[in-house]
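step=encode ok
step=design start
structure_in=
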């Protein structure tokens, strides 16, 4: 049958279409194969990495910064794990009317205590971002609450918590100017944290975590961990108890005398180890950018707002400064110790050298007045220090001459840094901080430097130099890091004492040491006296220069026990306000308080004289269960005053309690009825009273007194500070610590 023409045409067209389709398919296949080949060969590595990036989460395993301990292994600074909470904004649902976004905003704001409006604005401004930091340094409990919120609302692809670390300072103000602080990145910014930053900083590790398509973490066996290595741990020579005592004493002096600053150093006399170092006002290492309360009050007194703002910035920087090693000052009469030591060593004077002080001395065109206008009369090198005679000091300086004076100024370490392992130590500069023969030292300069003016020194230099007198003439290098240890407690490195040089002979040092003991026994340093401990020291008062108003620096430097020195204490009070500004009057009592409290703690046994034994406290005998008659008989024989409360005939309780130290001529309260309310009285004002007057007043009010401070043999000793302020209500029999000092000391 014949094929119709139209049908034939259609068949031809279909065949053409089939052929075209075939070639199109072949061409498409070729393109596909080429594309596959391109992806596999050319871009294969890139896509493999992309796939791995989606399958693996590359996390940092943060190392911990090394812990800083005091010598007793008490934590001073420590890093701990915290968390960084972050969100992935571009994974938040867009098709639910904003419900998920609001859930996240409200939930995280509540848990993390965020400002909801600020967080909302921050999130909306970064809605297309793949990363947004919400809050860092999140503690465990808050992080736990966040993850419970995430699990409950299935937000694990949007909200994450990364491990981080935070630096903690358990007692933030304790040695803050020594320890310093770290920045937001964990690196040390100030103090020891900065000086030893490299050793304290650890090495972070890496964690590679396998995840599924929904970014859920798979089995932990799929993790590969490069373990973090923590930083080295530092064990300091500081002792927390010594540091706390020193800071408390310095802070009290700062407030009592409205001083600009007070610096204190406690050093091991024989090794140079720093047991305490203080600068007040200070700051909290946990919150270093906040000004301390004392500075804030001072700034509030500035009326001009622009000036107040300027000062605020200055004071913030200054409160971080470790002034005990950085600031220069005129040492005043403290320098007379080194003057006499050098003169004795060189033989220009001996112990029998005499000089008659008439109150003034003239050298060339300069006349120097002593603080005692009528003079001290005939003196020897011993009384030069005891009386702190300026005119005799000038005489000795002239005997030494410029070259020999400079020789010992240099030998005692005042022309160089001590080398202490802390940042910011002041750098002495010839012609600026001190006179040198090559630049500016003349016979005219020699007059003023002989009694501690003109040449400037730092507190740490004075601590090292005065220790050399107590250490047989050997100048030690101060240090504050005792050793470094790993996390298992194994020692990595250890610091050993370094003798820098023999400054003077042991015999010269011992001679000067005996003079310094007399300074505290009966001279200008008598307010540093501590019963049972033979303190040796020297006071200093210098006038500040280069400022408009008249200002002074009061200081004390010494060591104890004098016969075998263990501890050196230096106190510097910068610009005290008021009529009292001499070192003997205001710095020596601070040093005495520090010695009195730390020497027993350090295990130094007291050695009392007979007169001292009569003033010290002894353990209270146990009167409980005795009859009133028996108790009175026993206590009367030991010179206690007895007060009986209640109508019973037998003692059921006493105050002070048995075994508690109380003065031998104090008062004991005996209670004769069980469960009686304890009777109280109001503390009187003891200021200005003598020892006997204070004791009589205390006993008459039903209190006991613990006497501290200057030698009680002097008629000029008066009470100047009491443990409880006037008006405080205390239980009868309570012990009140009262500090005494010699009034009117001029140097």
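sequence_out=
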């Amino acid at each position: 049958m014949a094929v119709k023409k139209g049908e034939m045409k259609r068949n031809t067209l279909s065949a053409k279409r089939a052929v075209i389709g075939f070639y199109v398919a072949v061409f498409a296949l070729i393109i596909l194969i080429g594309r596959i080949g391109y992806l596999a060969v050319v871009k294969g590595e890139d896509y493999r990495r992309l796939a791995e990036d989606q399958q693996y989460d590359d996390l940092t395993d943060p190392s911990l910064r090394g812990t800083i301990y005091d010598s007793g292994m008490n934590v001073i600074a420590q890093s701990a794990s915290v968390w960084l909470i972050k969100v992935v904004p571009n994974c938040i649902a867009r098709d639910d009317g904003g419900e998920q976004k609001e859930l996240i905003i409200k939930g995280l704001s509540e848990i993390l205590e965020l400002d909801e409006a600020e967080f909302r604005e921050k999130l909306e401004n970064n809605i297309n971002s793949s990363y947004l930091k919400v809050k860092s340094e999140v503690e465990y409990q808050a992080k736990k609450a966040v993850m419970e919120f995430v699990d409950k609302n299935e937000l694990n692809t949007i909200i994450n918590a990364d491990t981080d670390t935070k630096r903690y300072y358990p007692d933030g103000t304790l040695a803050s100017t020594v320890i310093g602080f770290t920045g937001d990145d964990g690196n040390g910014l100030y103090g020891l944290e900065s000086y030893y930053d490299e050793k304290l900083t650890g090495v972070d590790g890496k964690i590679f975590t396998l995840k599924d398509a929904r970014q859920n973490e798979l089995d932990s066996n799929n993790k590969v961990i490069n373990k973090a290595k923590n930083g080295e741990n530092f064990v300091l020579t500081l002792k927390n108890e010594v540091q706390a005592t020193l800071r408390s004493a310095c802070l009290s002096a700062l407030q009592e005398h409205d001083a600009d600053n007070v610096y204190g150093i406690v050093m091991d006399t024989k090794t140079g180890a720093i047991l305490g170092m203080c600068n007040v006002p200070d700051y909290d290492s946990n919150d270093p950018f906040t000004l301390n309360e004392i500075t804030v009050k001072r700034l509030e007194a500035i009326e001009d707002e622009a000036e107040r703002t300027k000062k605020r910035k200055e004071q913030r920087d200054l409160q971080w400064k470790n002034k005990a090693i950085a600031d220069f000052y005129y040492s005043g009469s403290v320098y007379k110790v080194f003057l006499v030591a050098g003169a004795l060593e060189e033989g220009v004077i001996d112990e029998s050298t005499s000089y008659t002080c008439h109150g003034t001395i003239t050298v060339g065109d300069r006349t120097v007045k002593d603080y005692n206008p009528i003079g001290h009369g005939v003196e020897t090198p011993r009384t030069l220090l005891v009386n702190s005679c300026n005119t005799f000091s000038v005489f000795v300086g002239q005997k030494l001459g410029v070259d020999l004076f400079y020789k010992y100024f240099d030998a005692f370490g005042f022309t160089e840094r001590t080398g202490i392992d802390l940042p910011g130590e002041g750098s002495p500069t010839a012609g600026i901080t001190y006179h040198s023969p090559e630049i500016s030292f003349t016979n005219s300069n020699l007059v003023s430097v002989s009694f501690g003016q003109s040449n400037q020194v730092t507190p740490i230099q004075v601590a090292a130099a005065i220790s050399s007198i107590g250490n047989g003439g050997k100048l030690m290098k101060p240090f504050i890091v005792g050793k470094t240890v790993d996390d298992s407690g194994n020692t990595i490195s250890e610091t050993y004492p370094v003798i820098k040089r023999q400054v003077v002979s042991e015999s010269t040092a011992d001679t000067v040491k005996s003079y310094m003991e007399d300074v505290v026994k009966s001279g200008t340093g008598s307010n540093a006296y501590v019963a049972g401990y033979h303190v040796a020291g020297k006071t200093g008062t210098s006038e500040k220069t280069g400022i408009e108003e008249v200002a002074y620096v009061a200081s004390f430097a010494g060591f104890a026990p004098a016969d075998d020195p263990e501890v050196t204490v230096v106190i510097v009070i910068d610009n005290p306000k008021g009529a009292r500004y001499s070192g003997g009057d205001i710095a020596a009592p601070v040093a005495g308080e520090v010695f009195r409290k730390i020497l027993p703690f350090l295990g130094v046994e007291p050695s009392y004289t007979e007169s001292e034994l009569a003033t010290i406290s002894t353990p209270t005998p146990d009167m409980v269960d005795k009859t009133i008659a028996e108790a009175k008989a026993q206590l009367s024989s030991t010179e206690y005053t007895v007060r009986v409360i209640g109508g019973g005939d037998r003692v059921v309780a006493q105050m002070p309690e048995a075994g508690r130290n109380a003065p031998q001529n104090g008062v004991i309260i005996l209670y004769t009825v069980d469960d009686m309310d304890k009777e109280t009285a109001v503390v009187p004002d003891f200021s200005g009273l003598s020892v006997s007057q204070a004791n009589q007043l205390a006993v008459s009010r039903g209190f006991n007194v613990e006497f501290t401070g200057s030698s009680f043999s002097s008629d000029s000793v008066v009470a100047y500070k009491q443990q409880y302020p006037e008006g405080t209500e205390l239980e009868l029999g309570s012990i009140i610590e009262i500090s005494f000092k010699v009034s009117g000391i001029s140097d």
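step=design ok
step=annotate ok -> The two ends are 144 Å apart (CA to CA).
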